[in-house]
Amino acid sequence: MFSEQFNVRFYETDALAHVSNTVVAGWFESGREPIFKLFSPNLDLRNWPLILASYKIDFHLQIFYGKPVEVRTYVSRIGNSSFETYQEIWQQNQKVASGNTTLVRFDFSSNKAVPIEAEIKSQLQEHFYPQQESAK
């Protein structure tokens, strides 16, 4: 599991006095940065190796200003050229949101998906979601 902590900023709140639902997608993307570094250690945007294929977010509880959040990022599936992450946001010891993202290893010069290297698959495997591990 990868873990990132964020302070909720005032501008991330909305008229209902809780965090806007659009903010969560950004927190999840920031939480995936350690995974991005497995593919591109320097985060070289001129030679980027991944594309986002899909994402889904579920909101469990309201998220509030003034209390930090933790984004937990796991790998839930590894395929030939794609993989999925499962992420959770926690605030005050409660899971407030969760989501799934599918990312594809992509070669922009050929405009095609390409296989994920064995070494990177091995590194991704180290961060499998615990329920996935028991299903093996």
3D structure, described in words:
β3 and β4 form a beta hairpin. The chain starts with a strand and ends with a helix. The chain has one domain (2-134): Roll (Thiol Ester Dehydrase, Chain A), CATH 3.10.129. The protein has helices at 21-31, 33-39, 118-125, 130-134, and strands at 2-6, 50-59, 69-78, 82-91, 94-107, 112-113. Strands 1, 2, 3, 4, 5 and 6 form a six-stranded antiparallel β-sheet that branches. The chain is of the alpha+beta class. The model has no long low-confidence stretch (mean pLDDT 93).
Describe, in short, the structure shown.
Its EC number is 3.1.2.-. The chain is 23% helix and 38% strand. The chain is an alpha+beta fold and 136 residues long.
Helix and strand arrangement:
Layout: E1 2-6, H1 21-31, H2 33-39, E2 50-59, E3 69-78, E4 82-91, E5 94-107, E6 112-113, H3 118-125, H4 130-134
Antiparallel strand pairs: 1-3, 2-5, 3-4, 4-5, 5-6
Family: Belongs to the 4-hydroxybenzoyl-CoA thioesterase family.
InterPro entries: 4-hydroxybenzoyl-CoA_TE, HotDog_dom_sf
GO molecular function: fatty acyl-CoA hydrolase activity
